[in-house]
Amino acid sequence: MRTATLLLLVTVVAVVPYLPGLPGEFVYDDHRLIADNEGLRRPFDARRAFLRDYYASDVDRMGLGYYRPVALLSNEADWRRSGGAPLAFHLTNLALHAACTGLVFALGRILVPGGAIPAAVAAALFALHPAHAESVAFISGRVDPLATLFGLAALAAHLVGRRRAHAWPWRAAAGAAWLLALLSKEMAVSVPLVAALLDLARGERRGWLASYVPYGVAAALYLPLRVAALGALTTAAPSWVHVAWWRPPVVLGSYLAWTVFPPPGLHLEPEPVSGLLAWGAAALALAVPTAAFLLWRSGARVPAALLLAVPLTLLPVAQLRPIETALSERFLYLPTALAAGCVAVSLATMRRRAAVGIGLALLGLAYAAVIVPRARLWRDERALWTAYTRAQPQAVKGWLNLARARTSDGDPQGAAQAYARARALAPDLPIEGEMANVAAGPLEGRIAHIRAALQRAPEDGALWANLGFLLLQAKDPAAAGDAFRRSVAATPGRARGWLGLALAEMQRGAVGEADAAAARAAALDPSLGLAAALRVECAVRAGQPCEALRRAEGLVLTDPAEAAALERLVALAHQGCP
User: Fold this and answer.
1) Residues 30-39: contacts with CB under 8 Å, at least 24 apart
2) The pTM is what?
3) 426 φ, ψ (degrees, to nearest 5)
4) 343, 438, 504, 538 from 476: Cα distances, Å
5) What does the alpha-carbon distance between residue 259 and residue 362 come to, in Å, rounded to a whole number?
6) In Å, what is the CA distance from 298 to each residue of 115, 327, 346?
7) How high is the mean pLDDT of the chain?
8) In whole angstroms, what is the distance from residue 56 CA to residue 65 CA?
9) Is it the case that residue 238 has pLDDT exceeding 60?
10) pLDDT tens across 261-280, in order?
11) Rounded distance, CA 11 to CA 4, Å?
């Protein structure tokens, strides 16, 4: 009963700090991976998850060398149960965080039988850690909780199985969980090494081969899938990327410092420290394994193993070669779970546990004071990038994303100002198309502005589509049709260009061409009601009233004007179809 009560308490602690920000919106990478991902609007196809890069889409084959099918499948599930509402995605992230917190508690209980209170304290610190805002409040940050959930499950099954007479079910569960962890995020590769460290620390010397066979099976399943999706185990580094031996100690030291003392406020993908701070970070990176060695020599082997596991899990992002993200707190999710296990084991063996507990309680309160406002920032795109530009005013990425957020909010003047700041920081940045889209003034001037931008970016399909819609407003369907044809030639997988082409052809009276374009738009995005409504109008104009009624069956439009027009079409079709 005591264990169940403590588990409930730490779960509540994990959830409550994130509730004030509900419901939030899609932000940052959520747009590409979820909100603008037209694949989610189509019938389910597992190949989208298992046979391509995490960042690839139906429109392009963008790849960063990330293979995360479990994360993509979780997005599919949330989309289909919610119709694309962000609240369902946020609730899934909260559930994952609560589950990971529960597993941190369970891992503490396995490592310290009878140490329920230390395990609960450690799990609460993990639940409140400010670095987790990016992994929990940011929908696309869920890859880290997913990898941690299955990684901790693999460790728990491994440790339990080592002490059971019938160990094979536990070994199989550990291997399966590790496979799911790898399919969630690459950082989970270190889990078997952590298991080996804990085996050594606990004196588990029997049955090593049998215990690690399931991990080999999981790797044998994972590696061919990854190669099939990415074309190789890893993406080739650009020619300008060089090994920098000084970088890993600085990066690892920064992460280790944030494991205990994360900076206040928004701390989104900062640049690595330099100067004296870099020397301090490098010293810390050396001090942690040294401390682990000394603990091991003193007999405190389990805390030593867990302490060493923290930098071990960070090695994939230590940046011997630069990676796409210089530093990111979301990489700390799994390492802080293992650090919490170290806290639980150490606290259970301390003599002055009460005094240490008070200190940890104060640390938890400090974490809570940071996590609540930080989590709220991840619910609002404009607030997020406003805070980012204040914290890092020289970062071009912040101004670009703030400009896009202001554009979405209907603030073209504010967007233009943010774009201007980005252009001032990076004069060669190819953002003419985006800047043209927020240009103010008369319709003719905006059209001229986009045409000028297209001279510099002739393959920008989105820009051609924007020009097409402006030309439709200018009552020039022929020129609009030409623009939309350029749009769909550049980006054939985007429904918006095909919809615009259908509207332009309809205005020109080319019913057959309009129907074909609308059908393509509807196939790419089944939720696009206007494309389906255009097909109803095409059937009416083609003298096929019964076909028009068939196409209109079950069609619901949310825009009042469009719904009224559809009703008139249906009434007209009823007159001609007995």
Assistant:
1) 30/86, 30/89, 30/138, 30/139, 30/140, 32/57, 33/72, 33/75, 33/140, 34/75, 34/79, 34/84, 34/89, 34/139, 34/140, 35/84, 37/75, 38/493, 38/494, 38/495, 38/524, 38/525
2) 0.83
3) -140, 85
4) 69, 21, 8, 20
5) 16
6) 21, 34, 13
7) 87
8) 10
9) no
10) 998 888 888 888 889 999 99
11) 11
- What share of the chain has pLDDT > 90, as a percent? 42
Is 339 within a domain? Answer: yes
Q: How does pLDDT run across 114-161, given as a tens digit for each residue? A: 778 999 999 999 999 999 999 999 999 999 999 999 999 999 999 998
Taking CA atoms, 524 is separated from 43, 59, 528, in Å, by 10, 10, 9
Contacts of 50 (CB under 8 A, 6+ apart): 69, 225, 229
Nearest to 192 by CA among 223, 150, 234, 163: 150
d(CA 331, CA 145): 10
- Per-residue burial over 351-372, b if 16 or more Cβ lie within 10 Å, else e, is eeeeebeeebeeebeebbebbb
154 touches 195 (CB < 8 A): yes
CB-based contact 268:344 (threshold 8 Å): no
Number of other CB atoms surrounding residue 227 within 10 Å: 12
Range of the domain at 345: 2-379
**Cα-based distances in Å from 480 to 33, 41, 434, 450, 472:** 30, 27, 19, 13, 6
Q: Does 461 map to a domain?
A: no
Q: 487-500 in b/e burial notation, b at 16+ Cβ within 10 A?
A: bbebbeebbbbbbb
Total residues found in the chain within this entry: 578
Q: Per the domain annotation, does 304 fall within a domain?
A: yes
| Single-letter amino acid code for the residue at 208 | W
Q: What are the tokens at 472?
A: 């439709």
In whole angstroms, give the CA distance from residue 159 to residue 162: 5
**SS3 of the chain: helix, strand, coil, percent, to 5:** 75, 0, 25
pLDDT number for residue 104:
97
Exposed/middle/buried for residue 100 (C-beta within 10 Å: 0-12, 13-18, 19+)? buried
Does 179 map to a domain?
A: yes
Least confident span in 222-231, 429-438, 465-474:
429-438
In Å, what is the CA distance from 322 to each residue of 244, 404, 463? 8, 27, 32
Measure the CA angle with vertex 203, ends 201 and 204; round to 5°: 110
The SS3 call for residue 189 is helix
Q: What's the number of domains the chain is made of?
A: 1
Q: What is the pLDDT of residue 453?
A: 74
Q: What contacts 386, CB < 8 A, 6 or more positions away?
A: 402
pLDDT score, position 562:
76
pLDDT in tens, 369-393: 999 999 999 989 999 999 999 988 9
Mean pLDDT of 531-537: 85
Using CA atoms, how far apart are residues 48 and 57, in angstroms rounded to an integer? 8
